Fold:
Amino acid sequence: MVVKNNVNTLCARFRGFYPVVVDVETAGLNSSSDALLEIGVITMKMDSNGWLEFDNTLHFHIDPFPGSLLQPEALAFNGIDPCNPLRGAISEYEAIHEIFKLVRKGLKEQDCSRAIIVAHNAAFDHGFLMAAASRSRLKRNPFHPFVTFDTATLSGLVLGQTVLAKACKIAGVPFNSNEAHSALYDTGRTASLFCELVNRWKRLGGWPPQIILSESSNALNKHIII
Structure:
């Protein structure tokens, strides 16, 4: 008999949150005015022993939304040519619709209550995804409106590094700088880093919480160390 919500389930590990790794490439820093050009998404699952691993991957090139700005310095940085017909770009609506469909499916399968964006410097990716969702007027957004898991913060705590490439190196995650600034590649590196951080905590004995029984005044008190 399978015990629901045991410690080796995704929903138990993150208090009902369903982590979804996201990376975006954009034509600027302003999510309300600058174009979203590329997005990568990786969903997570846990194996039977409670180790976090990849599940499904989506990746889309996206056409700039009507009236959006294309900042030359941003395009020079990520090397994207929005006018290149070989990109196979689709509309924001099509991309976000497919992402929401995959995430809602994962929420149901993993018995989670809300999806949460995992990203490196997560406020940036969260802002662009939410702005695109708002413009697309899609209902039932599965993502939490403001809570994120930021791998830059987690890496600073665990590894002493906040830059993605440097954090990956310390964590033992291969990183090729020549492939960086592609949403698909960066999503994969961020997902690998997140898995390593979560699984390292488990290997060190930090998960599941250890329960110690102590006797005080002839009564047993439970102390949970997390």
Observations:
- The first helix runs from residue 10 to 13.
